[in-house]
Specification:
It is globular, with a radius of gyration of 25 Å. The chain has 3 domains: about 55 residues; about 100 residues, GMP Synthetase, Chain A, domain 3 (2-Layer Sandwich); about 60 residues, R3H-like domain (Ribosomal Protein S8, Chain: A, domain 1, 2-Layer Sandwich), CATH 3.30.1370. The strands form 4 sheets. Strands 1-3-2 form a 3-stranded antiparallel beta sheet. It contains 5 helices and 11 strands; from the N terminus they run E-H-E-E-E-E-H-E-E-H-E-H-E-H-E-E. The chain is about 30% helix and about 20% strand.
Length: about 280
């Protein structure tokens, strides 16, 4: 089993470097945070993050078989194995009597699995983690869960993390959880990801939101990306946006993904990583 240790200024940066070294995607590896690192105080006492990335063995955690779907027997007793010759057939439709048999049940979609967990399991674990964090901070909030289909995203490996679940916190006086320009929410998400990684060995699949802040921020970023794209087309000069966390950079990439005359790339390291919009 291939495994490497990677050190960098932040966990996100260490994950991105390790995946590049291995030539793998998030879905192919297990990530263990050995040391989350510390920014120190004014640069004094700073400590790099340390992670261990292990390539999964194919088929290591097979998906459990789907339970058989019950078939209707129109009120008759269900036949036992080996007794089909003794059980009469269900009543057949009579022509001209307006008989319409019930339609078969629709096929149930198979939920995606991440690190051996399905989406509902990840949501349940994430709900327990954030409730425990709020309890320790003595903050009361209600939780709303929203499920998302998996998406193939552009950008670097770090920015291709498409969350499968969003947990939205609703309550009174929750502005402190958002902070100025979302810094407090970014820190809360980071702590949440560390705990989730410890429990499930997954990173970035459950997103924390507060009073729909991320939804509003998403709308603003999409509008900003489109305005800047129009300006790039007019001036034929690239434009670099302000530094953003990986989740917000991903939104900018997605907003301009299908633009026929615009492309986007990310540059920089850590908290200074930015999106640049180029003309094609």
């Amino acid at each position: 089993m291939q495994s490497i240790d990677q050190q960098a200024r932040t966990v996100d940066e260490a994950v991105r470097i390790a995946l590049s070294r291995l030539g793998r995607n998030y879905e192919d590896v297990d990530i263990e945070v050995l040391n989350p690192g510390s920014p120190g105080v004014l640069g004094v006492g700073a400590e790099d993050a340390l992670i261990r990335v292990t390539v999964r063995i194919p088929g290591m955690r097979p998906r459990p078989p789907m339970p058989p779907q019950p078939q209707p027997y129109y009120g008759m007793a269900r036949p036992l194995p080996g007794s089909y010759n003794q059980v009469p057939l269900p009543p057949q439709p009579m022509l001209g009597m307006g008989y319409n048999p019930p339609p078969p049940p629709p096929p149930q979609p198979i939920a995606p699995r991440v690190g051996g967990y399905d989406v509902q399991e990840l949501a349940n674990i994430g709900r327990d983690v954030i409730l425990n964090l709020l309890r320790r901070m003595r903050i009361q909030a209600r939780l709303q869960l929203e499920f998302h289909p998996p998406v193939e995203d552009p950008g670097s490996e770090e920015e291709s993390q498409s969350p499968l679940v969003t947990i939205n916190l609703i309550g009174n006086d929750l502005a402190a959880l958002i902070g100025r320009r979302g810094e407090a929410l970014t820190d809360l998400q980071y702590i949440f990801n560390l705990i989730m990684n410890k429990k499930t060995r997954t990173w970035g699949k459950v997103l924390i939101d507060v009073e729909g802040y991320r939804a509003r921020r998403k709308a603003n970023l999409v509008n900003l990306a489109r305005r800047m794209a129009d300006q790039v087309l007019t001036t034929r000069q690239p434009i670099t946006l302000e530094p953003m966390p990986a989740y917000e950079r991903r939104l900018v990439h997605l907003a301009l993904l299908d633009h026929p005359y615009i492309r986007t790339e990310s540059f920089g390291d850590g908290e200074e990583r930015k999106v640049t919009i180029f003309p094609k």
